[in-house]
Amino acid sequence: MTLRLDPPRRLGGIVVAALCETGAHGWRLPGALGAAGDKRPVAIVIGTWDEIVAVDPQGQPLALADLEAAFPALRDRLEAAMPQDGG
C-alpha cells in the first residue's frame, strides 16, 4: 500500500485534503490477465493559517506528527494550496 494525498481543495480560508492508502494488484491466469485497485481514506487533513489538524474518517482526532512521519510532504502540500492572502 502507498499513501497519497488527494488534491487539496480550498473552501474559503481553509484547505481540506484526504490522505489515502492506495494499492494495485495484478495477476495472470491461463489465457487472461486481471487487475484490481483500491483506495481507502486514512485521514482528512484540514489546514488554516493558524493550524493544521487531522481526523480519521469517523471524525476522531489523529496525531499530525504520525501522519507527517508516514507522508513527509503533507504539510508542504497543504500549505502550498492555502490562499496567499491568509483567507
| Average of the residue pLDDT scores | 92
State the low-pLDDT regions, or none: none
Overall 3D shape: elongated
Give the SSE order as H and E letters.
EEEEEEHH
What composes the largest sheet? 6 strands, antiparallel
Radius of gyration: 16 Å
The overall number of domains is 1
Total of helices: 2
- Please bin the fraction of helical residues: 10-25%
Tell me the fraction of residues in β-strands, as a range: over 45%
Count of DSSP E strands? 6
Could you say which structural class the secondary elements and strand pairing correspond to? alpha+beta
Task: Give the termini distance in whole angstroms.
Answer: 35 Å
Any overview of this molecule?
The chain is an alpha+beta fold and 87 residues long. It has helices at 64-70, 74-81; strands at residues 2-5, 9-11, 14-29, 32-47, 52-55, 61-62. It has one domain (2-81). It has two helices and six strands. Strands 1, 2, 3, 4, 5 and 6 form a six-stranded antiparallel sheet that branches. The longest helix is centred in the C-terminal third of the chain and has 8 residues, at 74-81. The protein starts with a strand and ends in a 6-residue tail after the last helix. This is Hydrogenase maturation protease. It comes from Defluviimonas salinarum.
Compact overview of the structure:
It comes from Defluviimonas salinarum. The protein has 87 residues and is of the alpha+beta class.
Which key features would you list for this structure?
87 residues; alpha+beta; elongated; 6-stranded antiparallel sheet
